[in-house]
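Protein in question filed below.

…
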Amino acid sequence: MDRVMWIQRSGARYPGGEGAGIETRHAFSFSGYYDPGNVRFGSLVACNEERLVPGAGFAEHPHRDMEIVTWVVEGELTHEDSTGARTVVRPGDVQRLSAGSGVRHTERNAGAEPLTFVQMWLMPGPGRATDPAYEVVRGIADGTPYALERTEAVLHVRRLVDGERTALPDAPWVYAHAVRGAARIDDETLTPGDAARISGAEGLEARAEGPAELLIWEMHAEPGYG
């Protein structure tokens, strides 16, 4: 696979939102927005930036057969679901909800400060849907790989100091999302909310321009159906 890199700037994300006090920016086709040329990348089918004022939230809603990973940028996210989980997710934590055969959950800002989080949905491979599952990894260490069940996808969290370099995974599909600061990949600089979609990634690295935080998905398969 020849290497191709495409940059989606923060301002090019599609605006959404559900309810008062919620601001959403979609990277892919989502909800009422559909672009047939932008439905997924590798197994990643959603990367939503969510901003919730205190007291705002998403009412209970269902999911099925989807891996949902959430990264809090600032504030606190209160999560409740039908598996019995009730947690508060803070910056530095990785939250994973495996919807499996079906789950319902709510998400809200029950705190006193604004909440910003990035939520990423990945489609698992073919096969029977499993029972839903939930976990939170508290304070995940920099560079620790986080692999998703039923997918060939791994999340890498990188927090870099000015000038620090990090190798990007060699993989058919790599998605790098800038959370904070700025990082340069080849001749492109990512700033907060920007993302690089790289097909056929090999021998690439990111270099921080000031302190930076990146979420990097390493993906080795596209969704299978049937």
